[in-house]
Amino acid sequence: MVKNRKLLNEELGRKTIQEFKASEKIPLVVVLDNIRSLNNVGSVFRTADAFLVQKVFLCGITGTPPHPEIHRSALGAEDSVEWEYINSTIDALQILKDRGYRVISVEQTENAVPLNHYNPVKGQGYALIFGNEVKGVAQDVVDESDECIEIPQLGTKHSFNIAVSAGIVLWDFFVKLKQK
């Protein structure tokens, strides 16, 4: 049996905030559409930091830093990842479309592409929209999206916590974009 020693924090090669900000990011931004839970917001910041996401847009009722509940789950990632608050998610999408991003709602829709079948194109910027914990991505936001993707699920619930969804989708995009 192979024995494994846990690495110490100083052995992990963590970037400083300045090093993170100077790092090349994957061409990806996250849009949070009316997220209620500040813990979910913090978790998304932490995941965005881990996968070198360019920016997080916080829209509608989504809470913003600085806030102790966001910090508790973000563990400081709200300081490393660039973010911006925009009241209207639709306005955020228009800004992103004007900047050349392909806007994708992560939602269960009639023509959603399963995440495992979605292949991002190298050189294209992507904006991934994650929706409210109860209502999901608002229909008007889905209507303004270029396309929708969904995480295939086989159990009885067919829903993930938004922070879990973000982790799955951001990891998938990170792997696919870094391989190309």
Descriptive report:
With 180 residues, the chain is α/β, with parallel strands linked by helices. The protein has a single domain (23-179), classed as SPOUT methyltransferase, trefoil knot domain (Alpha/beta knot, 3-Layer(aba) Sandwich), CATH 3.40.1280. Helices cover 36% and strands 22% of the residues. The protein contains seven helices and seven strands, in the order αβαβααβαβββαβα. It has helices at 17-22, 38-50, 68-74, 77-80, 89-98, 139-144, 162-179; strands at 26-33, 53-59, 82-86, 101-106, 113-114, 125-131, 147-150. Strands 3-2-1-6-4-7-5 form a seven-stranded parallel β-sheet, with helices on both faces. β1, α2 and β2 form a beta-alpha-beta unit. α2 (38-50) runs parallel beside α3 and α2 (38-50) runs parallel beside α7. The chain is globular and about 50 Å long. The mean pLDDT is 96.
Mind sketching the topology for me?
Blueprint: H1 17-22, E1 26-33, H2 38-50, E2 53-59, H3 68-74, H4 77-80, E3 82-86, H5 89-98, E4 101-106, E5 113-114, E6 125-131, H6 139-144, E7 147-150, H7 162-179
Helix pairs in contact: 2-3, 2-7
